[in-house]
Design goal:
Blueprint: E1 9-11, E2 19-21, E3 26-28, H1 33-46, H2 52-86, H3 105-114, H4 121-124, E4 129-132, E5 137-141, H5 145-160, E6 175-177, H6 178-181, H7 184-203, E7 214-222, E8 230-233, E9 239-246, E10 249-251, E11 254-259, E12 270-272, E13 278-283, E14 286-290, E15 293-296, E16 298-306, H8 308-311, E17 324-326
Antiparallel strand pairs: 1-17, 2-3, 4-5, 5-13, 6-7, 7-16, 8-14, 9-13, 9-16, 10-15, 11-12, 11-14
């Protein structure tokens, strides 16, 4: 008898916590006007929200964002179904199961080492660039130039089509949700299960690296006249990989602070330049953002890697035991069953 597919959920806080207000560069909790004035009145005034009209406009934006989040699951499922039925890809080979030929030799070697009996962190670090030992940020080539080019061609073809498109996340406005495009099963899931999991198990065992059982993957686009930078934030993930796919660009480096729980977490940000084809690995709770793009256009594949054994005990967005709500697909990575537990990622 076949087992039922594993069900994933989101936390109810998704509709009230960490709402991003780009104009004021601020994430807020929103449960109504009085709470917003009480909790954020002073900081909002200091950032330019001073007149009654400013505040009314902010309230309207937040109410619209809450409504958007409430509709997100069903609308995403409807877009995915329409795309599956009506979209005609330009690069069909992208939808085939992930092959080793798409991956950089360095990435294959690091993943292969990670699966060997006796593999350890010291040995794995010989296959990676350590960007910051203290902050545990690493980099290595992930995809070949040919695969980056083919994936970009497909993404641009989809962007130019008349298919409906969802925002990649709550901060970026331009890009593609890979599960809606049908690339979760052939591309992202095998990337996570076969390659990233053994790597992350050695790099981040305390953050659920050995128990990554879901993900959220999207491509973000930075270009003149569109998104050019990204404000400081942390990810709804235990771990993250960010791969620059192209095209040609200047500036727009990633910057990193400490973990979001730490005081003075952005006093001395570390800047990391993007290199096409290379992926930057970091903890999801690491504060980070993107400096303004100089010239050109940049596309990045971002995969939020999630471990239910960690997040089932503490939602990273509200800091409480998750209040589970039904959702589509992988949801936000929460489950009702209790897999083996690991310690929540600690401040190290």
């Amino acid at each position: 008898m076949a087992t039922a597919p594993r069900r994933f959920f989101r936390c109810a806080c998704f509709c009230s916590e960490n709402l991003y207000v780009a104009r004021y560069g601020l994430h807020v909790r929103f449960r109504g006007e009085q709470q917003l004035r009480r909790d954020y009145g002073a900081v909002l005034r200091s950032r330019g929200c001073v007149s009654p009209k400013d505040f009314e406009q902010l309230l309207e934006e937040l109410e619209q964002e809450v409504e958007r989040r409430q509709r997100l699951g069903p609308e995403s499922a409807a877009r995915k179904a329409l795309i599956a039925n009506s979209y005609h890809p330009a690069r069909l080979e992208i939808y085939n199961p992930l092959q080793d030929v798409a991956l950089a030799p360095e990435f294959l070697a690091a993943a292969e080492y990670s699966t060997l009996p006796g593999a350890d962190l010291e040995g794995l670090l010989q296959h990676l660039e350590t960007v910051s030992e203290e902050q545990r940020i690493y980099r290595l080539p992930v995809f070949t130039p040919l695969f980056c080019q083919a994936l970009l061609e497909e993404l641009e073809h989809f962007e130019q089509s008349d298919m409906p498109k969802g925002r990649p996340n709550t901060m970026n406005n331009y890009g593609v949700l890979l599960h809606e495009l049908g690339l979760d099963e052939p591309l992202v899931t095998p990337l996570r299960e076969r390659f990233l999991q053994p790597l992350m198990a050695l790099l981040y065992p305390d953050c659920g690296g050995g128990g990554l059982d879901s993900h959220r993957a999207f491509v973000v686009k930075y270009a003149p006249g569109q998104d050019r930078e990204l404000g400081c934030h942390y990810d709804n993930a235990e771990l993250t990989i960010n791969v620059a796919l192209g095209k040609t660009f200047t500036e727009g480096a990633l910057y990193f602070g400490g973990l979001f729980q730490a005081p003075s977490a952005l006093t001395k940000p570390l800047e990391v330049e993007h290199v096409v084809g290379q992926g930057i690995l970091h903890r999801g709770g690491q504060l980070h953002g993107a400096r303004p793009l100089g010239t050109g256009e940049r596309w990045n594949l971002v995969v939020w890697l999630r471990a239910s054994a960690v997040r089932n005990h503490l939602c990273p967005m509200c800091g409480r035991k998750p209040d589970l709500v039904d959702d589509e697909g992988f949801g936000d990575g929460f489950t009702r069953e209790e897999p083996p537990t690991v310690d929540v990622c600690v401040l190290t």
